[in-house]
C-alpha cells in the first residue's frame, strides 16, 4: 500500500512539473504568435543573427525550393555567371516547375539565375549545379561546405533545387534557424549580397538561349513583396514532403528582420505562409528596436610592478592608464525588446609586471544580453612603462646628492 501511495505521489509530482513547464512555455509565446500555421518558424535579427522568436526552430525538416537561395549565392560568389552552361539530359529531365530546357541547349548562367529565383525552375538549378560544381553531387558538396562555414550544422544539401532526395549522408533538409541564417548571409554578409538582392527583387525578366532560337519570360512569384512594405528578398518552396516553405528578409527603419517557415501547410493552404510571415514581421516591427553598444567605460589606472615611474624616480610607484580600444568596436546594432538590457563586465589583468608596451592588451570589456556574449572590446595601455634597472637607481642617487 505504501509503495502504491509513493508511486501515486511521484506521478502526481511529475504531472504538476509538466503542467507548470507547459504553462510557462505557453506564457513565453506572444499572444499574436500562438496560432502560427508553420510547424517550424523563426524570426531573426538580421543584423546580429539573434533569434527573436522560434517555434521548433531546431527541428530538421525538408525545405523544398528555399534551397535555391544557397544555389544562387554560391553561383554569384563563383564569379562565373557570365559563362555559358549546357543542358545535360539530367537537367532536361527535371520535373515541373521547369524552364523546359533541351539536351545540348546553351544558356548564360546569369539568365539561369533569374529563372532559378523568379520562377523556381528545377532544370535551371541542375544546369547551374553541373556547370559550377561539375555535377549535382559536386555542387551539393560545395553547398554543404558553405553551410558548415556559416555554422548551419543541421543542414544537409543533396540537390540544388530542393526536390526531396536522400544520399549516403542523409536527407535533403535544414532547420528554420539554419535557413534564416543562410538568408541573412545572402542579403547582408555575402560580398555578392547586392547582386543577390538585384535578382530576387526583379519583378520580371526576359531572355533567350545562346542561339537566340527560343525566348523565355520569368515573373517573380514572391507575392509577399506586394503584401508588406520593406520586403527586400524572399523565396518560396513546396514539395509533398516539405509542404509550403518560405524565407524572406525585410528592412524597416534601419532594422533587418529574417523570417523562415517550414512545413507551413499543404494544399490547399498555400496562403498560410503569407499570414505567418506577416504575423512574425509585424511582431518584430512592433516590439524590437535597434540599440548600438557604445563603449563608455572610464579609463583605469593600473600599478606596474618593477616599473619605472614617469618622473624616473625608482622609489615612486609606476602606473599606467588603460582605456577601451574603441577602434576595435564593430558598431553592430542589436534588436532589443522593451525591458531587455545589455549589461557590461570589465575584466582587468592584475599584477602588471614591467616592462609594459604601449597598446598592450591588459583587459576586456564584455557586453552581454542575458548569458549571450554580444561584443568584446580590449582594454589597452596608453603608454609604455620600462622596467627599472640598477642604472636608474644610480642615476636617481647621483641627482639627489649633487643637487
UniProtKB/TrEMBL annotation:
Matches recorded under SUPFAM superfamilies: beta-lactamase/transpeptidase-like, Penicillin-binding protein associated domain
Signal peptide limits: 1-25
Protein name in the entry: serine-type D-Ala-D-Ala carboxypeptidase
Annotated binding of substrate, by residue: 235
Origin superkingdom: Bacteria
Source organism (scientific name): Marvinbryantia formatexigens DSM 14469
EC number: 3.4.16.4
GO molecular function: serine-type D-Ala-D-Ala carboxypeptidase activity
Active site location: 65, 68, 120
Physiological role: Removes C-terminal D-alanyl residues from sugar-peptide cell wall precursors.
